[in-house]
Amino acid sequence: MVVDNGSDKRFTRQSPAPDDARLIQQFVDILWLEEGLSKNTQLAYQRDLSLFACWVNDLDLALQNVAMTDVRRYLNWRVAESLSPSSTARFISSARRFYRYLLREAIINIDPFLQIQLPKKGRSLPKTLTEDDVTALLLAPDTSTTIGMRDRAMLETLYATGVRVTELVSLNLVQLNLRMGVIRVIGKGDKERLVPLGEEACVWLARYLKSERQELLSDPSSEVVFPSQRGVQMTRQTFWHRIKHYALLAGIDKSLSPHVLRHAFATHLLNHGADLRVVQMMLGHSDLSTTQIYTHVAQQRLQELHMVHHPRG
Predict the structure, then answer these.
(1) Is 173 helix (H, G, I), strand (E, B) or coil?
(2) Is 213 among the residues known to form the active site?
């Protein structure tokens, strides 16, 4: 039996009471007839509702006798069991439909889920790299080769500016100003922004533009900064494969993409004290709330450092 606070780890029933099992099956059958639900969706409804039925049956209740207070106790039990917010949201969606069905069939008079809200899903933190990871990645290309020099210049530019991969591969010469140390980025909605390159990126770009770029171009008059081996503008997919290749060479076992390097750019800037609004402008985010997710990544890293190095961490 589950105690009144709804927080016990166990309940005794392994399957719903026969009447409740029949109601659940009727509901699933109706959904299949009316909407042609897939077998997997039918099974998901049955699992969610059967678990709930076992819990309420342990309270000597039937599904049709459940009150809103019982629902809230069950949701508390799910929290105590560390069941994920996403699975709880799915259960609530299933139960809402089930009790609307019971109401429509005049099996109940009051819907106990009428005022139950879906749990808020925490926004997932973007994956990022440590500064040592980035250093290893930047050193991975063999700069004695034409392709290696191009890739080093691309990686340096990506990490120095935090540009999106589409903005990087579509970069043209007219957008570069190495003397001023900036690039003019054309972002989403054709919005332009100026982003500083930094000294290291400028050095590698200058070396690459001096000779290797011309060797790659199929059309000498082309303005594209980073041509592919075929001499034309590189695709996003090609650059993604190049990064995966260098991650392997650098011994980085984390899932890596151009976007992860963009996350690292933002996180490392904030870790070193950059202003959030400056980072917002550099990333080309129209809304500050989009950038604020990086403060959580930075804060998480600072907390880890505090725990490791502070005498009372």
Answers:
(1) helix
(2) no
- Entry field: residues in the chain: 313
Please identify which of the residues 96, 184, 236, 259 carries the catalytic annotation.
259
Distance CA 202, CA 183 (A): 10
Report the alpha-carbon distance of residue 237 to residue 256 in Å, rounded. Answer: 13
Q: Out of 89-98, 180-189, 250-259, give the one with best mean pLDDT.
A: 89-98
**CB of 156 closer than 8 Å to CB of 178:** no
Q: 232: left (phi > 0), else alpha (psi -120 to 50), else beta? A: beta
Q: Is 13 a catalytic residue?
A: no
Instruction: Supply the pLDDT for residue 306.
Output: 45
Q: What is the dihedral of CA 98, 102, 103, 108, to 10 degrees?
A: -120
In the annotation, is 164 catalytic?
A: yes
Position 286 pLDDT exceeds 60 = no
Per the residue annotation, which of 188, 191, 244, 254 is the catalytic one?
188
* Active-site residue, selected from the candidate residues 73, 150, 213, 262: 262
Tell me the pTM.
Answer: 0.54
CA distance 137 to 140: 5
- Cα 173 from Cα 275, distance rounded (Å): 29
CB environment 54-81: b (16+ within 10 A), e (fewer): bbbbebebebeebeeebbebbbebbeee
Tokens of 303: 């907390």
Residue 73 designated active-site: no
**Rounded to an integer, what distance in angstroms lies between the CA atom of residue 5 and that of residue 258?**
48
List the catalytic residue out of 164, 242, 263, 268.
164
74 is catalytic: no
* Torsion angles phi and psi, residue 224, rounded to 5: -65, 135
HSE-up of 265 (CA within 13 Å, CB side)?
A: 26
Q: What angle do CA 77, 82, 85 make, to 5 degrees?
A: 90
Using CA atoms, how far apart are residues 301 and 267, in angstroms rounded to an integer?
9
Known catalytic residue: 90?
A: no
Encode pLDDT of 290-306 as tens digits. 555 555 555 555 455 44
